[in-house]
Amino acid sequence: MLRASSGYFFSDPPPAEPARRRIPEALKERAGWAAQGLAIGLAGALLAWPAATFLMKQLRPAPVAVAKHVPSSPVQPVVQAPAPVPRTGTADFGKTKVSKQARQLAQWVMAGWDHNGRPFAILDKRQARVLVFNADGKLQATTPVLLGYAAGDDSVAGIGLRPIAEVKPSERTTPAGRFVAQPGKNALHEDVLWVDYDAAVSMHRVRPTNPAERRLERLASPTPKDNRISFGCINMPVKFFEQTLWPTFGKRGGIVYVLPEKKSMEQVFAEQMRRAKAGPST
Description:
This protein is α/β, with parallel strands linked by helices. About 30% of the residues lie in helices and about 15% in strands.
């Protein structure tokens, strides 16, 4: 009665074990051959795997190299040097008639390369006229100008520091000589080409501020006799200043030669004459 829950009693005989199925011998033999074949296949695959891997790597196409993005440095502009000016050794006046002094000095400048390949201008005080040359010695243009009231070739010492009202009429001269001219501004913030900064002498547009001086009429007159009116500066027509002088000298300046009216050419331009005889230095 102890195992009533199992469906039988203690005193009953145990139930018979179920009969086991018998596997046919032929089926056992086939299963053995299959297991043996599987084992052989796995062993072969393990032995062939390294060789297959190597072969696949060899046959695989090489990867395309992708260039990394490297930020390029800023492109520096190529600064082109100005074309060298041919050293012709002569000045070209074209068909323009100029004074003997102006022609002589221009030839000295070109023969000795005194202007160092820069544009230059010649002020002929006796003719009250400015001639503007290109760096190659070719005359670009010419114009009548107004200049210092008093005749003379030298500036009074310290005149550039004195108030303009204190400058005597006899001291209002335009000095002669060779000047390295530089563009700049005057006290009125106007564009000027400084000829002699220490003496406050410059080239600038004519300013008809005082009607009694008749500066425009003096510029338009056919003779240079009435062109002396300034305190020493060189006044020129507005159109000429803006279309010729300033485009030529307004950025880098140049050389301005002022012819003498009392001294000789040899006194004022002895160095230019010497260089012309020696020829341009290399």
